[in-house]
Amino acid sequence: MLSILDELEKEQDQVELAIAKYANAQLEPFYSKRREILKQNENLDFWPTVFKHVNVLDDFVSVEDNLILDEIDDFYVEKDSEGDKDLSIFMSIRENPFFKAIQFKKQLVWCKDTETQEKDSGFYTSPDRINFEIKKRLPDDSLFHFFGYTTSSKQKERDQNLEIANILADEIFPAAIALFKLSDEDNVTDEYDISDA
């Protein structure tokens, strides 16, 4: 019975991979268009507003990180066109109290299991080596350590980085417009707060 279930699971994985591949192909032009429109409207403060409405990141964001998040001017996620789990995360940040303007890039590449050849045996990260001028040291619990190297010996760090990557790639990036629009709803609620009446 277990072998039948194993086969069904593999079949389901193949279907999910095909769906992911199709979704990536359909959404990529939309995300590129959104990115270009946002670059033409820099005064919109789009990404800082989005990140202010993301509660799922609260456990990873230090108080100091908020000063950096206020300066995000571009955020982008590229997923593997084959529908695999591999992805690259880009974040461009204006000058802030901690460092001068910078573009972070981090890739998460899944390793193949030597027996099954499936990409499920963990991942390694490949951040771009970036030379930038540090103005002030980041706190140890800063979200922005995510953009550094992840070593295989630190399982807790790897698990946390994977969780952050999933939040950034699967929750924040695709839902950015809805998160941004929450700020308008908050402003309307504040303006017409009936609890003050």
Automatic annotation (TrEMBL):
It comes from Starmerella bacillaris (Yeast). It comes from the Eukaryota. InterPro entries: NAP-like_sf, NAP_family. Signal peptide: none annotated. Belongs to the nucleosome assembly protein (NAP) family. GO terms for biological process: nucleosome assembly. This is Template-activating factor I. One of its GO terms (cellular component) is nucleus.
